[in-house]
Design goal:
Number of strands of chain B: 7
CATH superfamily of chain B: Flavodoxin domain
Number of domains of chain B: 1
Helix content of chain A: 40-55%
Order of helices and strands of chain B: HEHEHHEHEEEHEH
CATH architecture of chain B: 3-Layer(aba) Sandwich
Structural class of chain B: alpha/beta
CATH class of the largest domain in chain A: Alpha Beta
Helix content of chain B: 25-40%
Radius of gyration of chain A: 19 Å
CATH architecture of the largest domain in chain A: 3-Layer(aba) Sandwich
Shape of chain B: globular
CATH topology of the largest domain in chain A: Rossmann fold
Oligomer: heterodimer
């Protein structure tokens, strides 16, 4: 299997998507000696060539963050490019990894239907969509908080190298939670009144000297 | 008092005018093709009709200097509510927040609205506050402003557009409305929508 990965994160190599791809490839390369190219849609040159690179690959994984419960604009542009020239394609299989800041996978579940249909549009076998929420901040978390996630992605890569598909058990685990319970929601909203749930935002606002301006409404006035 | 009552009575007895009030309408036009086609012809006819009684601002996105959101989150923790990228998006943010209604207009490409429209939609995140609240088991960002305009979708179908595509688009835009504390009021298609009906609907939300 000749695999090519596209990273659709606007944050380029410093993205959470890049980190997850790295973990995936750690596992994948355990059973595969071919070097897997990773292309970045934020790179102008790679974006220009992205449709060609896509159509020459046998199996493609597209990895990106969720923006407004949908693909980012830069990924949509990529989709437009690859659909335009799909008749020249040798690509047989396509899969997706979608990660988000919000922990609940419901946010990406509507996009998943679009991604499945896109595979159909491209006449490709759909390998599925891995959805992982709660990813924001993994770059600064201590290993004790990320070990499980990174191991899951490594295992996902291993099974992908062996069987050419996403391991369904891992995919199901990564999707949790789909939503939270009403009790959890109430608890969270109560806790938010103490300011504890805003810690991540407030610490960054303070670090940047912007805490006092956090409620600004610059477009309130004409 | 008597004059006021007569005025009210007059309002009740007369036919409702075509446009009942003056609205501020923002149109985000995601057409990627600057040339003339059925879509642009429809828009060319719709805009003057809406402008008869309303203030309408149209943003032809393909012709504007608009960058992709780069996920830096400056708008949340460095310059709250403002984007670090300086381009034409600022005009859109301002118009958006002062609108009674927003029309997301776009030909469908690859089964969804255009990348030009998605590009600016991503950037609208600065209109929300980073703090998170939970509604029916889901995380959502707090409002930064008191009110956000409702929106409608005006689309041009592709040759292979089917019911499933339309359901997917509506679902995804309903998610957008949920995230933005607003409502999707309608989805219409240039192929089978009467201009005057659409104008009427837009002005009677």
């Amino acid at each position: 299997m000749k695999l090519v990965i596209f990273n659709g994160s606007p944050r380029y190599k410093k993205s959470n998507s890049a980190l997850l791809i790295h973990q995936f490839l750690e596992g994948y390369n355990f059973f595969n000696i071919d070097k897997v190219p990773v292309y970045y849609l934020t790179s102008n040159t790679q974006r220009e060539a992205s449709a060609d690179l896509f159509h020459k690959a046998e199996t493609v994984l597209i990895v990106f963050p969720l923006y407004t419960d949908c693909m980012p604009g830069i990924v949509k542009e990529f989709f437009e490019r690859i659909v335009q020239h799909s008749t020249e394609s040798v690509t047989e299989k396509i899969g997706y990894i979608v990660q988000s800041g919000f922990p609940e996978s419901i946010h990406a579940s509507f996009l998943e239907k679009y991604l499945k249909k896109l595979a159909q549009r491209l006449n490709c076998e759909y390998l599925g969509t891995v959805i992982k929420g709660g990813v924001e901040g993994i770059q600064i978390m201590p290993p004790v908080m990320t070990n499980k996630l990174f191991n899951q992605f490594e295992k996902l890569g291993e099974s992908f190298a062996l069987y050419g598909t996403f391991e369904s058990k891992i995919v199901a685990e990564l999707r949790k939670p789909y939503t939270y319970s009403r009790t959890y929601s109430r608890m969270f909203n109560l806790l938010s009144k103490t300011g504890l749930t805003n810690f991540y935002w407030n610490s960054n606002l303070k670090k940047n000297g912007a805490y006092n301006k956090r409620f600004d409404r610059p477009y309130q006035k004409r | 008092m008597l004059t006021k009552n007569i005025a009210n009575l007059t309002n009740i007895c007369t036919f409702e005018p075509y446009f009942t009030k003056t609205m501020k309408i923002t149109i985000l036009d995601g057409n990627m093709n600057g040339g003339s086609n059925d879509y642009s012809l429809f828009m060319d006819n719709l805009i003057p009709l809406l402008r008869k009684e309303n203030t309408v601002e149209v943003f032809p996105l393909h012709a504007m200097d608009l960058k992709y959101c780069n996920g830096c989150w400056s708008c949340w923790w460095k310059t709250p509510g403002e984007c670090a990228q300086k381009d034409d998006a600022e005009q859109i943010f301002r118009a958006y927040m002062h609108s009674d209604f927003v029309l997301f207009a776009s030909p469908l490409i690859a089964g969804f609205t255009s990348s030009a429209l998605k590009k600016i939609t991503d950037r609208l995140i600065l209109l929300l506050h980073p703090y998170i609240q939970m509604d029916v088991g889901e995380s959502h960002h707090h409002k930064r402003y008191d009110h956000y305009p409702d929106f409608g979708l005006l689309l041009q179908q592709e040759a292979d557009t089917d019911e499933q595509d339309i359901a997917i688009i509506n679902d995804i835009y309903d998610r957008l409305s949920l995230n933005f504390h607003t409502h999707r009021r309608f989805t219409r298609f240039v192929e089978n929508t009467h201009l005057e009906e659409l104008a009427y609907e837009t002005c009677h939300i």
